[in-house]
Design goal:
- This protein is an all-alpha fold.
- The chain is built from 7 helices and no strands.
- The chain has 3 domains: 53 residues, no CATH class; 35 residues; 62 residues, no CATH class.
- Helix 1 crosses helix 2 and helix 6 packs antiparallel against helix 7.
- The relative contact order is 0.05.
């Protein structure tokens, strides 16, 4: 009974290995299958003859193209990370942990006048630094200033309604 179990494991491993070979080297697998079906005895020379060869210059071209593709993928990933950072720059997830957002906790901890001053101060801060801190993307700080200004307008508007 133990022999059947280990035989089953071996068969499973062999099946997995054949699948890997089918994906990586279909020409070799096709050759081996055809040879076995025809009853040939495969020796090292027959397998070596079936192994496809690649001209060295062609291999260099392939490697260069693969390197370029990898660099492009890296740039795309970096670009996507920058885009994600921009999307979340005004209201990122790390300000939303817990039951309330950080800005709500700040507002609740202050008087209305103090919170208005906080919002005004943040507007001024982001307007002050927009040309220097994120010189590659000054819109980020301008959008933050706009967000704080909108909150300030909303807060002040409540007094006049």
């Amino acid at each position: 009974m133990g022999n059947e179990k280990s035989e089953s494991k071996v068969r499973g491993a062999l099946d997995a290995e054949w699948e890997r070979l089918r994906k990586e080297s279909p020409a070799i697998v096709d050759f081996v299958v055809e040879a076995v079906e025809q009853g040939f005895n495969l020796g090292a020379e027959a397998v070596k003859a079936a192994t496809p060869t690649i001209d060295e210059s062609l291999m260099r071209v392939y490697i260069e193209l693969a390197d370029e593709e990898a660099e492009e993928e890296d740039l795309l990933e970096f670009s996507q990370a920058e885009e994600d950072e921009k999307d979340d720059a005004i209201n990122p997830d790390h300000y939303k942990s817990g039951l309330i957002e950080c800005i709500e906790a700040i507002e609740e901890s202050m008087t209305t006048a103090a919170f208005a001053g906080y919002l005004k101060g943040n507007c001024m801060k982001y307007l002050w630094r927009y040309e220097t801190k994120h010189a590659y993307d000054p819109l980020q700080d301008l959008q933050k200033a706009e967000w704080y200004l909108s909150r300030l307008i909303e807060l002040v508007g409540e007094d006049y309604e």
